[in-house]
């Protein structure tokens, strides 16, 4: 096993390929691709600039809507969004919009093209908790609009799910680091290794003079499967596998810290995108076999089609309509099998290792260490329409998965952009009243 197996799969365009692809775009008057993009990127606009070789202008157009294009260009479900809506898609000749976006963003980073003129940071002071897609988007948008923004991150590296959740072969950490450097260059400050709710509370942040606080902490608590035997050794959360494999790939921990031994027979319970990431990571870590266990049918699977197909290509097996009733252990207390209902009746299916990928929910560390922030019965933060994204506590906002439940990167970004606008309106109004 070596780290090369985690190398990015989806190769980039060369300049010639990118320009040739861009030239195929019809620059439609009423572009359906844009309607398919959750953040309504001006797709024909940037593709047109790219087709003429104007990389800087192409990037400036993308940046009007996105702070993370090198990431979106890689991990967005393009076939469901922009590309799937392109007029040429039905003929099987859809423009490869994701790869073009990624090309422009990578070119910009490599060539250091964009040097934005930034406003003075005089509009107010905003704290952003969490540095995943939502936090980075809010921070980037507000910094561009003249706010002094500080991101508080509990881990030693910023990026949240981008850094520790999405595997290297889909999203190289180098790309994440470079996108974060660009956000930093907008004047955003980062405080790392700082768990809000533990090292500092929301109340203390207000005492430090923040005008508004944004909670973008996502869904950090993975759900457990409540069946007999669930405490056996060898039953691990997928998010833990992905985190450990990620830091192993960055040479931060040794191989034996990754909870999977070579040759093991692996079962993944759940069939969403995290399950696909865990399955494909298990393949790369040298599992003997990998099976995804799902209680519904293939048609009900929540994973993105392309991820599912890649998993199939890599040899992952799928056990449809299979519900785990019990985990069975050996004499050492380690899992050895599941007992499950299957289309052929009840069966014992042997596994050496089980990874759970049945969803996650928000942690309550922040809301339990302050007052006035209401959550629903499952822990999701309740927010208002006006100002957009404000919680039940004045000046505290929330967005992304911690409000809307786990979604894709771009949907977290979309929600975060609206909340950034809500924060700007709120802070401006408060300052006006104070004046
Ligand atoms: Fe270009 Fe397709 Fe969008 Fe038309 S729909 S502007 S062809 S990418």
TrEMBL record:
Superkingdom of the organism of origin: Bacteria
SUPFAM superfamilies in alphabetical order: alpha-helical ferredoxin (SSF46548), Nucleotide-binding domain (SSF51971)
Span of domain FAD/NAD(P)-binding: 125-416
Ranges of residues in domain Dihydroprymidine dehydrogenase: 4-111
InterPro entries for the chain: DPD_II, FAD/NAD-bd_sf, FAD/NAD-binding_dom, Helical_ferredxn
PANTHER family, A to Z: GLUTAMATE SYNTHASE [NADPH] SMALL CHAIN (PTHR42783), GLUTAMATE SYNTHASE [NADPH] SMALL CHAIN-RELATED (PTHR42783:SF3)
Annotated protein name in UniProt: NAD(P)-dependent oxidoreductase
Biological source species: Candidatus Phocaeicola excrementipullorum
């Amino acid at each position: 096993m070596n780290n090369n197996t985690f190398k990015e799969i989806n190769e980039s365009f060369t300049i010639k390929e990118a320009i040739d692809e861009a030239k195929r775009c019809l620059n439609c008057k009423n572009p359906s691709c844009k309607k398919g993009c959750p953040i309504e990127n001006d797709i024909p606009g940037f593709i047109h600039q790219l087709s003429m070789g104007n990389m800087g202008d192409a990037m400036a157009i993308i940046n009007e809507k996105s702070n993370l294009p090198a990431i979106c260009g890689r991990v967005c479900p393009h076939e469901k969004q922009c590309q799937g809506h392109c007029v040429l898609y039905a003929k099987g000749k859809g423009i490869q919009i994701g790869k073009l976006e990624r090309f422009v963003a990578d070119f910009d980073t490599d060539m250091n093209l964009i040097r934005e003129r930034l406003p003075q940071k005089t509009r107010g002071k905003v704290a952003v908790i969490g540095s995943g897609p939502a936090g980075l988007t809010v921070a980037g948008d507000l910094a561009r609009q003249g706010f002094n923004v500080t991101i508080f991150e509990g881990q030693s590296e910023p990026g949240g799910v981008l850094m520790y959740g999405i595997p290297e072969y889909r999203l190289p950490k180098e790309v994440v680091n470079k996108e974060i450097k660009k956000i930093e260059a907008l004047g955003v400050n980062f405080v790392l290794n700082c768990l809000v709710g533990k090292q500092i509370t929301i109340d203390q942040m207000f005492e430090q003079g923040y005008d508004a606080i944004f909670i973008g902490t996502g869904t950090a608590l993975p759900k457990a499967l409540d069946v007999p035997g669930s405490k056996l050794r060898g039953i691990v959360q997928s998010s833990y596998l992905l985190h450990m494999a990620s830091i192993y790939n960055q040479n931060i921990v040794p191989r034996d810290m990754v909870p999977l031994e070579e040759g093991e027979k692996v079962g993944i319970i759940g069939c969403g995108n995290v399950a696909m990431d865990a399955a494909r990571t298990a393949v790369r870590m040298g599992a003997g076999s990998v099976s995804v266990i799902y209680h519904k049918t293939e048609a009900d699977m929540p994973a993105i089609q392309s991820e599912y197909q890649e998993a199939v290509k890599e040899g992952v097996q799928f056990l449809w309509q299979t519900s785990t009733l019990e985990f069975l252990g050996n004499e050492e207390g380690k899992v050895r099998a599941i007992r499950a209902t299957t289309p052929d009746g009840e069966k014992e299916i042997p596994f050496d290792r089980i990874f759970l990928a049945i969803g996650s929910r928000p942690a309550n560390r922040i809301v339990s260490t302050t007052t006035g922030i209401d959550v629903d019965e499952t822990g999701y933060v309740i927010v208002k329409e006006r100002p957009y994204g404000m919680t039940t506590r004045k000046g505290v906002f929330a967005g992304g998965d911690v409000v809307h439940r786990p979604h894709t990167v771009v949907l977290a970004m979309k929600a975060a952009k609206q909340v950034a606008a809500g924060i700007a309106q709120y802070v401006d109004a408060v300052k006006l009243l104070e004046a």
